[in-house]
Amino acid sequence: MCLTRTNESALIRFVNLKGGVIIIKENPYRNLFHLEPDCGLLNDPNGLIQFQGRYYFFHQWNRFSLDHGYKEWGAFTSSDLNHWDHLGSAVLPDSKEDSDGAYSGSAIEHDNKMYLFYTGNTKNSGIRKTYQRMAYSSNGYTFIKSEKVIETPSGFTEHHRDPKVWQSNGIWWMIVGAQTIDQVGAINLFSSTDLEDWKYEGVFYSAQTLDQMCECPDYFQLGDAEILVVCPQKRTSLLNGNENISSYAGYLVGAFEKNNKCFRPESDIMLIDEGFDFYAPQSFTDEKNRRILVGWMSRMDEAEEKDCPTTAFNYLHCLTIPRELFWENSRLYQRPLEELKSLRKKRITLTKANAKLLSDSGAYELDIQLVNQTTPFEISMNNGNTVIQFDGKSKLVISRLNWVSGQREIKELHIPNLFEIQIFNDASAMEIFMNKGEKVFSMRYFCAEEKREIFYSGLQENGSIDYYSYKEE
Ligand code: FRU
Question: What is the ipTM of this complex?
Fold first, then answer.
């Protein structure tokens, strides 16, 4: 399997044999700076780590088909967070305790070894049983699975997955997403001194707000705050026919009470990302001590997967760009990494009220500075597919054309004192950072034309827009 790809070539060729005729199609959706597989379905980021200087972004992967029937860990690596190689498979579902999927998990470094923690999913005669498992590596390429597994504690169903591990005061802690037997979302806590034997410590956190199951929990210290990331899997609501309610990723602020071995929340759940496509984020700290977060840019919608235009090129989904996290003004801020700036090529600064621009590749950054913007401002990108409208007060309406319904899909945000909108537009993925990362909005969109028009109107005096193309134009 050849999976090495650098971001130099955004357009790959898809070769299809039809009745003996070779059809070569350019792929207008192939992203330049969003990580995506060359083939198969990618979902959650897994095991994010910087190990022996190199960054590793593992991910959930079905390399055989575009559905969720098979799962292993694939691996992207990079030395600079801009140029990535895909190493192919890292953790395979090849043993009795993970025969039906090597599900999500995390990574840590200890004694010059990389340790991956993941969920082994099994379904014998259709009955689910899960195990939290560990695999380690000295070189970051070959992994040895430990025979020791963690079984699900009593009082919980086998929807027990996505271990996240960290160390504090010489103790290793692990949290695992769980479902109580009464079908309430929960997070379980385990501890270990050697990364092999784990003791169940009890429920770290559980609440009705976690819906019927909590996936992909994460916990970390940021400044003087302790953050718990939760992904309530809203399956019950979906089963009840309310298709407007979907799973989301949120965070709570609180405290890990070491005596009671649980997380005491001091806030409600807040959204990490306001966009259409964001789920199962994971964070890690790198050697520069930055807390970096990456999410999966999708929302687990069968129809959207089936009709996604990239299926014609035999792959699905991408990850968000890595974001550095900050704790400021008693809230979470997310900002694109500094490294991304080195992708900037040509720069155009615009200060006119209305203007039209043509992007040759669809891969660019727009830094919009609003100064006393008290009248409406609108910007439409990707030939009208994606639109941002600001009412000059605090309302921001972001919309895109949904590729299943063909209808415009809208989300409304309220941001008092909006002064900056930074847009990272890739061939089929867009991330919008507002007010230096106070709010973030992620979405996929699919525009078949390669040349993309940007049109804006209503920019007030002193406002400016910097356009940076990410490809030579
Ligand atoms: C979240 C999730 C995880 C699970 C993985 C399986 O998207 O459902 O809970 O480990 O995906 O691919």
Answer: 0.99
